[in-house]
Amino acid sequence: MRDQGNPGWNKVAEILHRIESLHEGHDSADVPSAGEQVSSSSGSAPTSPRESGSRDPQERDYVQAVLDCYRWLPGTSTVTSRHDRRCAQQLYRRGVPFEVVKSAMVVAVVRRTFRRGGPLPRVRAIHYFLPAVEEMLECPCDPEYVQYMEHKLRPLADAKRAGGTPSGPSS
Fold this sequence. Notes:
The chain has helices at residues 7-19, 49-52, 57-72, 82-94, 98-113, 130-138, 143-161. It is mainly alpha-helical. The protein has one domain.
């Protein structure tokens, strides 16, 4: 399924396993929609339950998995802000499965990375991916195709993690 040698994806798989049952019957009537404007700014994300506004460990795990996925992707910022955390919390409270969020992020980054033309500016906020999340909710991608796209992004993500800044797609 996932590259067993990549500790980031292993952690995501572990978190997914813990929150699988969470989304069954989850009430999200009072949560803002994903289309609502969430601005981005630089800064560090809160780490304590009090600062993050949640005492629910499953929500914290979900939010952390979304933030980790965002930071792993090439063409995204290496840091997250409180606005990114709030956006991930809203996705959780709406009951959007993590796999849908991850698929949306991967698809959007692949579209940006492997398009014709020069490189685009870095994605600076998770909010950028909300239209792709809505698209994945309406018409989900085949999980094997998302896995293939992750594989295509892996060399670029590895270069990002190593501190390199590749200028375009590889192989």
